[in-house]
Structure formats: C-alpha cells, structure tokens
Amino acid sequence: SKDEGGGKHYTFEPSLHASAEERRQLEFALRSALEREELTLNFQPVVDANKENVLSFEALVRWNSAEHGFVSPGKFIPLAEDTRLIVPIGEWVLQEACIQAMTWPDDIRVAVNVSGEQLLDPNFSASVVNALAVSGLAPNRLEIEVTESIFVRDDSAARTTLEQCMALGCGVALDDFGTGYSSLGYLRKMRFSTIKVDRSFVQGAAVDNPESLAIIRAVVAMADSLDMTTTAEGVETEEELAMVRKLGCTKIQGFYYGRPMPAADARALFSNDRTP
Ligand code: C2E
Ligand code: CA
Ligand code: CA
Ligand code: CA
C-alpha cells in the first residue's frame, strides 16, 4: 500500500506475506541497492565454548534502502533468491567479508551465508576464488554456510560445488541444523567442518524441554564421531550457555556474547586490549 508508515490500517492484511505491490516496489529498490551502496555487512562473533575467545565472525548482510529504510534479511534475501539478484549480492558479500577479515588477526575466520541459488550458479566457485584473490585472504579462513535445503533440489550439483570450495581449503558449515530436510543421507557423502544447531533447540522453553536436550546431545555425538565441530546458535542467556556447554557444543554464537555489529566495531575488539 502507498501509505506505508502513515495512517492506521483497519483492513486485515496477512503480515507474514508482503503484498504483490509491496514486493514489486522492494524488488525495484533491491535492483539498484548494490550500485547505490545501500548494502553493508554486520559481523557476529562466534566464541570457543570453553576458552571463551573469539574464533570467527559470521557476516550478515544489512540493507538500508533510500525508499524503504532498513529492510530485514528475512524479507529481502528470499526476494533476492526468487529474482536471482542473490548472485551479484552474494558475490559482493563474499568479497566484502574477505576484505574485512583481512583487518583481523590471522587466526580469526569469517563465515559467509550462501543460498542455494548462488551455489547452483555455474560461476560460484570462481567467485570464491576471486574473493580470496582480491582480498588476499587465506582460504582456510573462509567458511561457507549452507542449509540442508540445498540438498533437496540438486544434491549432486550442490555437493560438487562445495567440494570444489573444500579443495580450495575453505570450510563448509551446515546451518540451521534440525529445522529442514529430514534425511541424514547427505552427511554420509559430504564432510562438513561444522554443524550449527538451530536456535529453536537452544532458546527459552527449549532449555527445559527434554526432547530439545536429547536432540542437541545426539547432534553433538554424531558431529564428534564424524570429526565436525558444533556451534550452538542463538545463545542469549547464562542458562542457555550453561546448557549447551554441558551438552558439549564446541562453539557458541548469540546475543549473550555479542550481537551482529558494524565492521569497525568488530575490528575494534582486537585493538581494545592494547594499552594506550
Ligand atoms: P542465519 O544464517 O541463521 O543467521 C543468524 C541470524 O540469527 C541472524 O539474523 C542473527 O542476527 C540472528 N541471531 C544471532 N544471535 C541471536 C540470538 O541470540 N537471538 C536471536 N533472537 N537472534 C540471533 P539476521 O541477521 O536477521 O539474518 C537472518 C537470515 O538471513 C540469516 O539467518 C541468513 O539465513 C540470511 N542472511 C543474512 N545475511 C545473508 C547473506 O549475506 N547471504 C545470504 N544468502 N543469506 C543471508
Ligand atoms: Ca548462517
Ligand atoms: Ca543459522
Ligand atoms: Ca536461519
């Protein structure tokens, strides 16, 4: 509708789905977001569960649109996927994430989210090679995050591309684990470096939920025996932290240790301990 942010709406509009018109306007704005430099990256720390030092940051894209203000990735990433705008946007994200990581100590890694649409683009591995070359980042400092959904569509094409990335030396993490595809068959064929346990198993009521605990315990045991690390996502409270630690998750990500922050703030974490 035209009067966004204006008067009150008394008509019922399902809020989970943007109207066709709103979607069309967002798509139009998204088409020029890159050239208008409206996209930025935020970085969220991932911390060692025991030693509590920062191991890596996950790059999370932000869009501040001239017309629409801040639009959440939950809204514009699906749109970018449907329109294939995710390919150029994803290339920019990869490159910018690698460039930022070069400003951190050289044992700190960076994780980048990659959509299925991007992964199945024939130029994907070339864009990884390019981002590493342009930035000078060592391949083993880059981790690519994918969700189980990529194995639903074209299992072998996705695997081939991820194997090319692993051959370069990059890590591959399985994101949002436990929320998607129910078959574990692909775990036999692909060696991930990390499994990220979805925050729905970690948060709030789930802490007191024996089923959630049993699932996390099983995921950790499986990851251990397959030589993968486990990241608990969405840890916000002391209680959640204590629980995922006790269950043996090796890495922690969530508001408890830090929210996604601008690149300058991530960089500053490493200069703070210098005495002036
Ligand atoms: P994700 O990959 O699962 O990223 C984690 C999301 O959880 C982020 O939301 C982060 O801000 C949020 N989060 C982290 N810790 C906590 C916590 O303790 N509590 C709560 N409630 N939330 C927490 P964000 O930044 O809004 O991103 C949403 C999703 O958008 C991401 O989920 C990812 O699927 C997608 N996304 C973000 N950036 C990119 C990107 O550059 N490329 C692609 N393809 N997708 C992206
Ligand atoms: Ca992710
Ligand atoms: Ca996730
Ligand atoms: Ca997610």
From TrEMBL:
This is Diguanylate cyclase. It comes from Blastomonas marina. The chain holds residues 506 to 781 of 787 of the full protein. Residues 23-274 form the EAL domain. Coiled coil: none annotated.
